[in-house]
Specification:
alpha/beta, 19 helices, about 10% strand, binds tryptophan
Length: about 375
């Protein structure tokens, strides 16, 4: 029996069927036609596009029409700072950086410290600490400081709040109840929050006093915010933002659901040492292998449910030929689970070594990224 899937920004459960979600949320499939339109401009396709890690969109065709007419878009995405950054977070941001480089566009990046304060049992001070820590990770991914603007909800309230209330006035309590499954025990800040996340998609238009198209790369659980706000944008005189949606990068313990920062002892953090990565992969990474080497050699493993294989596919093995070989070898039993884990540990540690170096340097760069009016 399938468990009913639930996908909201604060709860993901059940067996996720991405094809079903496209229908349920009313999105469009990221098909070959739209991919080839992207490729016309980017010359190559990012592995996350080729491999359908990004699998759906809204109004991307329209956004490309605009771009082709010389009407450049900006990118908007964000981070909810409630804990350390783990590998599951990185997909959207790595892809966003690729888009920034390929299209040469601005990125507006929101830190929803208000959200995490309102929704989590954490103090305001703790959330501020995570906001700072998470900024280091974002900067370490290599965004262009001249084209990237950080907005922190409680610090840039002067800019965001006047726009947020315009959304809030046009979204009813019953709409957010239905979209998010809110019950009457929700605090009143939670009910308001969607309007804060909707606002950055219009900020550049407000500042430039003209309409600028917006593209939002996000993980699918964030879509409900923009579904709720979607009809409000034109009512306020703006374009609806285009969106490109990614799947969840699976948690260490299995290919279902999404990696959560509240289970961070299990997730691989960007600050983990090589030893820690090795320990977590060996101990927790859900394997698609057979119980014994003999059986594995005979019957082969299942890469489709193997978490290490999924990490290589989502993040760490950009070479299609190499990935395919690993897939086939694991499936045939030629490649053992211990060997696949070894490959994955090496890849993750090579990535983290560079990331951690850049993360240290990022401390001096924060003020360059912070939006100043
Ligand atoms: N609410 C998101 C989170 O908890 C962060 C976020 C803010 C975001 N604005 C966004 C994510 C826009 C995607 C797109 O992670």
């Amino acid at each position: 029996m399938k468990k009913e899937m639930k996908v909201t920004p604060w709860e993901v459960s059940g067996d996720i069927d991405y094809g079903e979600l496209i229908k349920k949320f009313g999105m469009s499939k990221l098909d070959d036609n739209i991919l080839s339109r992207i490729k016309k401009h980017t010359k190559e396709l990012h592995p996350m596009l080729k491999r359908k890690v990004f699998f759906a969109h809204r109004d991307l065709g329209w956004l490309l029409d605009q771009y082709e007419k010389g009407n450049k878009f900006f990118l908007y995405t964000g981070c909810g700072p409630s804990g350390p950054i783990h590998l599951g977070h990185l997909g959207t941001w790595i892809f966003t950086k690729w888009l920034q480089d390929k299209f040469g566009v601005e990125l507006w990046f929101q830190f929803t410290d208000d959200e995490k304060f309102l929704f989590k049992r954490k103090s305001y001070e703790e959330i501020q600490k995570w906001t700072y820590e998470n900024m280091l990770d974002i900067i370490a991914l290599g965004f262009n400081p001249r084209k990237t603007h950080f907005l922190v909800d409680t610090k840039h309230a002067n800019l965001l709040y006047p726009e947020a209330i315009k959304f809030a006035k046009k979204i009813t309590f019953s709409t957010v109840k239905a979209a998010f499954g809110f019950t009457n025990d929700k605090n009143i800040g939670e009910i308001f929050f969607t309007s804060m996340q909707a606002a950055p998609a219009v900020i550049p238009s407000v500042l430039k006093k003209k309409n600028i198209p917006c593209l939002i790369p996000l993980a699918i659980d964030q879509d409900p915010h923009f579904r709720v706000a979607r009809d409000v944008y034109p009512k306020l005189g703006y374009y609806k933002p285009a969106i490109i949606h990614s799947r969840f990068i699976p948690p260490l313990t299995g290919v279902k659901g999404k990696m959560s920062s509240s289970e961070s002892s299990m997730a691989i953090l960007t600050t983990d040492s090589p030893k820690e990565v090795e320990r977590k992969i060996k101990k927790y990474a859900f394997s698609g292998g057979k119980d014994t080497t003999k059986e594995h050699r005979e019957k082969g493993g299942n890469p489709d449910i193997d978490v290490c294989f999924q990490y290589l596919k989502f993040l760490f093995e950009p070479d299609d030929k190499k990935l395919e070989k690993i897939y086939n070898d694991y499936k045939s039993g030629k490649l053992l689970t211990s060997e696949l884990k070894e490959i994955t540990i090496k890849k993750i540690n090579a990535f983290l070594k560079q990331h951690q170096k850049r993360r240290k340097k990022a401390k001096k760069q924060i003020s360059k990224f912070m939006y100043k009016d």
